[in-house]
Amino acid sequence: MCENHAWGEISKNPALSPNVLKPAHLDQNWDWERHLPSPGITAVDFERRVNFDRLRDYRLARSRQALRNSECGALLLFDVNNIRYISSTKIGEWERDKMSRFCLLVGDEEPIVWDFGSAAAHHRLSCDWLQPENCRSGMLGLRGTVPPAVGFMKTHANEIMDLLRKAGVADMPVGIDYVETAMFFELQKAGMQIVDGQQIMLGAREIKNQDELILLNQAASMVDGVYHMINDELKPGVRENDIVAMSNKLLYEMGSDDVEAINAVSGERCNPHPHNFSDRMLRPGDQAFFDIIHSYQGYRTCYYRTLNVCKSTPAQTDAYKQAREWIDASIAMIKPGVSTDAVAAVWPKAEEFGFPDEMSAFGLQFGHGLGLALHERPIISRLVSLDDPMEIQTGMVFALETYCPAKDGVSAARIEEEVVVTDTGCKIISLFPAEELPVANRY
Asked: How far apart are CA 331 and CA 225, in angstroms?
């Protein structure tokens, strides 16, 4: 199991090697005996909590170093998580699928953000870490609803190329994470040589600093509370969507800024796992599992728990024990220097739990990085990691999840733990009890 170490401070200007992004040297500023806090959601004058200036400096420094380590002269970003990582700007869940915001990072220059309408004016007033002139209004077309022929995309593509020429990098590749097809063509017409920028940014985001870890831990602590509520409410006659509604309400009351999804799966819906919720009514003896995916200050959780309703059967208990054994085996492997193939190897092959191949079983025995996005690097899976392993490093944060169908043909157990990689092992931050199968409102 994980060692009970805690995190000290990471410098806001980490010492980064020419080829690999790493956290600062672990010196006297680190206090590994301190517990990683979940300090609440308010700012206070009587104790040090999250230092958002340090967080912004760290994220921008990581992005700049990742850019230096690449072939690119600039990064042009449309992924809202990358935009937030570099610029610390956000305009709510509305932005998620609009592809209307973008950000340019050139060398050591300050980031430029194009935002939707009056949001740019808000940034000039409220985001004093950005240069006011770099907060620009932008409009690409809202995923094609304003036709490209209107010319917004062409105008912005030429504007961006002018900025690259002034910076002296117009003849270098530009890393783009993702972009609308029509905008991609306009950037090419304007003379841009485009390469994959998502890999550059995912590399920058792999290692979390002290403030990111606190925010991830705070987000997980909120889910601890949600599972306590679910344990109380899991009764016959309650529907899956009722649990989803109550969980959303509680999370927003606690201070969540985005409840991305809540899976609620029960009874005969457990096997195979449908990855959604329904209006199915809970019945005595049901096995049920839930995944709470939300964010606090942008930092996400992915946190499964399985509970039974009123009673359990030997088949359900056996499935839970097996899922627990698989997840404990993977947690024991998480430490700096271990490669992801070694972790994936402790999980069963797809054929061993009822699937024809690893593609069909992908996401069931699974690990993934957590941060501003639900899925960050590295990904751990027999589908991916055995042939393309990555090294686990101090400062990574993972969600590890296992799934075991029961021999009754309908039930299944799903467990997930979030872990922080310390200098000697890892620390679990998902704390709702899961060592044994919980039975809610036992008869």
From this structure: 23
Q: Token pair 């006011």 is at which residue? A: 132
Q: Provide the terminal-to-terminal Cα distance of the chain, rounded to the nearest Å.
A: 32
C-alpha to C-alpha distance for 119 and 94, rounded to whole angstroms = 12
**Stretch 44-53: mean pLDDT, rounded?**
92
Work out whether strand 366-369 and strand 135-138 pair parallel, antiparallel, or are unpaired.
unpaired
The reported pLDDT for the residue numbered 117 is: 87
Q: What is the pLDDT of residue 16?
A: 36
* Domain shared by 311 and 370, yes or no: yes
Name residue 359's amino acid: M
Q: How far apart are CA 347 and CA 368, in angstroms?
A: 14
Q: Helices (H), strands (E): how many in the chain?
A: 10, 16
Q: What percent of the chain has pLDDT over 70?
A: 93
- Of the residues 142, 168, 196, the one at which a domain ends: 196
Residues linked to residue 440 through DSSP beta bridges, in sequence order: 309
Is 384 a residue whose pLDDT tops 80? yes
pLDDT above 90: residue 278: yes
The answer to whether residue 7 scores a pLDDT higher than 70 is no
Cα 351 off chain centre by: 29
Any idea what the Cα angle at residue 228 is, between residues 227 and 234, rounded to 5°?
Answer: 80
Query: For residue range 11-42, what is the model confidence (pLDDT) as tens digits?
Result: 333 333 333 454 443 333 345 567 889 999 99
3-state secondary structure of 405: strand
Does residue 188 share a domain with residue 125?
yes
Task: Note the pLDDT of residue 4.
Answer: 35
The answer to whether residue 48 scores a pLDDT higher than 90 is: no
In the block, residue with structure tokens 């029960």: 266
How many other CB atoms sit within 10 Å of the CB of residue 17? 9
Q: Yes or no: say if 193 and 94 are a contact pair by the CB < 8 Å rule.
A: no
Last residue of a domain, one of 155, 174, 196: 196
State the total domains in the chain.
2
Residue 140 reports pLDDT greater than 80: yes
Give the Cα separation of 271 and 406 in Å (integer): 8
Whether residue 231 is found in the same domain as residue 188 = no
Residues comprising the chain, all counted:
443
Half-sphere exposure of 115 (CA within 13 A, CB side): 27
CATH code for the domain in which residue 223 is found:
3.90.230.10
Residue 381 covered by a domain? yes
Q: Are 310 and 434 in the same domain?
A: yes
